[in-house]
Structure formats: structure tokens, C-alpha cells
């Protein structure tokens, strides 16, 4: 994005904020929002999703889905930090101005004047805002500006604890003291959240918004001790393309090889069998499922269930074996980045419904704002999903969309780098767009495009982009991706590397 465009956006933000008028008073009709946000949590780990292994069981998350609308596909981000930046700003990664990595990973920073977070506007409009758990978006966590209440693991500020997802986290209490948390983090975050819901430490006269950011099930995939014996004796098929070659895929995808073969030709990594890795990952979900039960029980007990919008999703998914990846997000395949998504609010949102329209992270922000009655405080990239919540089968002409630019944000993405700088790990920058059936992926290096029929080929093994009969559809979806890039003021849209013909 150019400097002129950045100034226009800032002026547009200021104008929209001024137009919103004075802060609206809190009323009983304005719903609370409980936003449950898990980490590296694939839709395949929930038994309410048909893609889950047959031995997966998450009865409490399933019950949440039965009391609301479950979306089959959500794309919130390509990895932890940009997905969180999106859910704080309503912008895709290329629109998150001033966010940058700095110092030791995951050190990062931003200018709140250029990169405002929408909970600040919630506060101004009479909401009491809270955030609990993992923070991965700049060392400034926004307490006192964006949040009235905050119990936070500030991962960028304490990079030496960046792997402490389950124990020994430095927790900062409401912008003050920081103490090491020895307890299993999923359980402690839930305790704090139930206290918040009950009214401890908040203004009970105001509607509330709580962003509950679990660290589970991020690596090192540590289950609670009570779940270490779960899932004994499970079995599963090995993903078809765990080992290369992968016919029809781009050159970069042929190089993904994070598994080795044991003496019997079965996949192993780090001395452990494939099935052991998958089992441990799924064991960590049990505590999250228990947490959802406790949260929903607390809403019931306090009489807030009918006036609380509940969202359940994750920053992105995680591939285990698919396409050769091991515990990896970043790539544009569903196995890597597709998140679960559930909306629930009895009496306002229909129950036991499934929406097969794919959606994107910025859409969640626009939807939450709609429920509060607020107008967007600045131009946002997402679309309000309430028509789909009212009727999950409604016609929806907007594709799901996502852009991944590694560890680079905002106008810093205007110029696509060359060589290794255009990669995040082993995966190049990319643009992805999909409708109910097809997905298109354009790498931002000179390599093959990808096109998949997700109805016929949900594992994304057959790249239709290399087939002559699909050239018209390929051109159509390529044009749709460019339209979305232009709609969201993407600075690199007019100078992307040329596509490589098959």
C-alpha cells in the first residue's frame, strides 16, 4: 500500500469514527460476546466435523454446534500472528499497517495510531472488554486502551518463554504485575474466564466482550496429565502424499519432506511414529472440550446464555502428514489452515444448522460489530455474515479469500521480495480464493498455480490448474483473486510475478 493510500485509510478511519457519534449507552438488548479462540486447532479434531477421524470425540463442542450454526470452512490466517492481527483490525495481513517483527522471535511491534484495534471502539460504545491468554501481536497488549480487563501471556515481550504453551508462562495481570503461571494453562484460562462471566472484576452494568485465547493445541502438543492415557489403540490411514513426489504440484511443494521412512516404510519423525504424533495432538483437545462445557454451563447458571453471542474458532489449522508437513500451518491447503467455526446464540441464531459457505477471518469482525449495533469504525475487509446466520443456505456471492505474506505486514508487502525472502519457511507467499466447490492458489513466486475441486478431491491431490480443460475456470478464479486484492487495496496487485504455465 502506498503512503498516500495509508493516509487515505487513516483519514477514512477517523471520519468513520467521528460519524459514529457519542458512545452508545449500555442496554440489556446489546449482547455479550464470548469469543473462544484456540491455537493451531484443525477442524479435523472435532467430532462434529465429518472429516474427523472416527475415534475423535468432542461432545461439548459438538453440543455448541448443535445449539448454533457450524461453518464447514473458515480461513482466519496462515499462522498465529497475522490471524490475530486480522481479528483485531478487520484487515487481511496486507492491510495491517505498521505491524512488524522486531528483535528475537516472536518479538513484534506496531503503532496503535496506524493500527487501531476494534475493542477500543467497543469500550467507547459502552462495552466492557476483556482478553485472557495468549498474545502474539506486538509487545503492546493494549491494556487500558483496548482492554478493561486483561490476564495475558505476552509472548512477544518474553521471547525466552515462547514455547511455554502449557506451563511456566509469565502472566501479566491488568497491565501490572507479572507472575509465572505453573498450572496447566487451558484449565487456568478457563477458571479466569468463568470468573469474568460471573462478574468478578468487571462492570456488571455493561455488556461485555471477552476474547479467550487458548494456547492449546499448539506444539509441543502437551495434554493435561489426566488425558495422557486417552486414545490408546487408535488406528488411522497415512495421508496419501506424505512422501514426495506429488504429481502436478508446484516445485516448492515437491520439496516438502518432513517425514522419514522406517524399516517397514512407515512414516516417522524425531524418532516417533506418525500415529504417536497424531495421538498426542488430539489428546490436547480433550481439555479444550471440557473448557467449552464449563464456559457454557457458567453462561447458563448466570442467566446470560440467551444474551451472549458465542464464537468458537482457531487461528488456523495444522497439517500432520498431509502434503508432507508435520505440525505445520502456513501453506494454503485446507489441512494446514482451515479452522473450525461455530456461532451460537439460542433464540437469535438457528440451531443444529450447517453453513457450507466458506468464510474468512475479517468476516468475523464485521459480524460481531453487527451484533453490537455498531457501525465499523473504519473500512474493513470483511463482510457481515448475519444473512448466513439467519439462513445458512442463503445465496452468498462472496468468495473466501486469504493472503499470506510471511512475517511482513501492511505497506511493507507492497514490493514482493525475491528468492528466500519470498518464503515463510519452505512455503512461498501466496494468494488464495475459494467458493463452495473450487479453490485457487497463486504463489507469489514464478511457479505453478493450483486449482482444486474440493467436492471431488477434498485432500487437494489433483491440481486442475495444469489441465487444459480447466483453463477457463482457472482464468476466472485468477481474475476473482485480483478483484479481491484490489477491493482490499493491496499494494502488490499490479506487479505480481507472472504465473508459470504447465
Report a brief summary of the structure.
By secondary structure, the chain is α/β, with parallel strands linked by helices.
The named CATH superfamily of the domain at 29-228 and 270-393: Alkaline Phosphatase, subunit A
Could you say what the CATH architecture of the domain at 29-228 and 270-393 is? 3-Layer(aba) Sandwich
- Alpha carbon gyration radius: 22 Å
What is the average per-residue confidence, as pLDDT, rounded to a whole number?
94
In CATH's first tier, which class of the domain at 29-228 and 270-393 applies? Answer: Alpha Beta
Number of helices: 12
Question: Per DSSP, what share of the residues sits in E-state strands of 2 or more residues?
Answer: 15-25%
State the major sheet: 11 strands, mixed
Report the end-to-end length measured between terminal Cα atoms. Answer: 31 Å
Structural class: alpha/beta
User: What is the strand tally?
Assistant: 24
The CATH topology name of the domain at 29-228 and 270-393 reads Alkaline Phosphatase, subunit A
What does this structure look like?
The chain has 502 residues and is of the alpha/beta class. It has a domain of 324 residues: Alkaline Phosphatase, subunit A, CATH 3.40.720.10. The protein is 25% helix and 20% strand. It contains twelve helices and 24 strands. Strands 1, 2, 5, 6, 7, 8, 9, 13, 16, 17 and 18 form an eleven-stranded mixed beta sheet that branches. Helix 2 crosses helix 8 and helix 3 packs parallel to helix 10. The two termini are 31 Å apart. The relative contact order is 0.18. The N terminus is likely disordered.
